[in-house]
Specification:
The protein has helices at residues 2-7, 22-50, 76-90, 96-121, 136-155, 179-198, 206-223, 226-232, 243-261, 270-287, 293-297, 299-318, 328-334, 339-359. By secondary structure, the protein is mainly α. The protein has one domain. The two termini are 39 Å apart.
Amino acid sequence: MLYYILYSFHLKLSPLNVFRYITFRTVLAILSALIISFILTPVVIRKFHEWKIKSGTREDVPERHEAKKETPTMGGFVILISTIIPTLLWSDLTNYYIWVVTFALLSFGAIGFIDDITKLRGNGKNEGNGNKGISGKMKFTLQVLSAVTISALLYFKYGFNTQLSLPFFKNVTPEIGFFYTLLCIFIIVGTSNSVNLTDGLDGLAIGPVLTVSATFLLFAYLVGNINFAKYLQIFYVKGAGELTILCGAMLGAGIGFLWYNAHPAELFMGDTGSLSLGAGLATIAVIIKQEFLLVIAGGIFVMETLSVIIQVYSFKLRGKRVFKMAPIHHHFELKGWNEGKIVTRFWIISIILALIALSTLKLR
């Protein structure tokens, strides 16, 4: 929006020509998202306290989480606003991919919002404290429907590439045709739920979200530039460069949220944030042809999900639990680790994984 207004005068005022550069607009998106988040979040925290929008008591967490029950939730609402507004301000609104990712953020954010509201109203299965939300079947169905829509929007776009890109292999690019839509659905729904599982400690989920956003910011820029893509021997995706701005907005919004979400958290993102951020990152990964790179960069999300799967199947098959509690961050809590130590170490792992993901640009 502002991009069009300002750039339209570049012939009369040559300094405005700078708005043609994605890098400059990405910096503006990051700063805009930060400012919006810093202004809006304190207001939301205050209002949510007044409206008693709090996380409440959960049964599937260690006892020491009882102290968090008065902390406001649904902070993902702020992250979404802080991401989408700068994106609309500084990106090219004729870009198809910007709208697809925006739809992913909003649709999964809406699912999370419904789930959060249901928990708050006490309409879940556990009528006593209302912490169950909508049924797992309903939640999954809504996620799949949204993911099907996203995959269809991409698959039926003229010229969309359905080849796979495998990290560390430059000449292995299998073409899977229609089956790409199924993979796309799996990636989007899986990542969305993985981020949701990770969101269990103060700042734990938003840290890896930031590292993955930063990683995809760079990849989106390179993939969208035909010269860089050719030099690095990665897929060139025309128009994907504009997603650099959206990734920047997500990065700025996440940093702003972390300011208030760091231990002790003043605001939780809730399903509104975790589901939308997971879906947004997954959709970006699909568009920039880095589907499997998401497994590396988002390794923390994968680890959290695998811990739950292992725990469930181990108990069903052997009657024994592998971990004291799943997801795995609760296991370390019950082992006596301080919450801050768990979060910091998971962040360190996430940064290392992001660096490994970046190394695939040359290690091919």
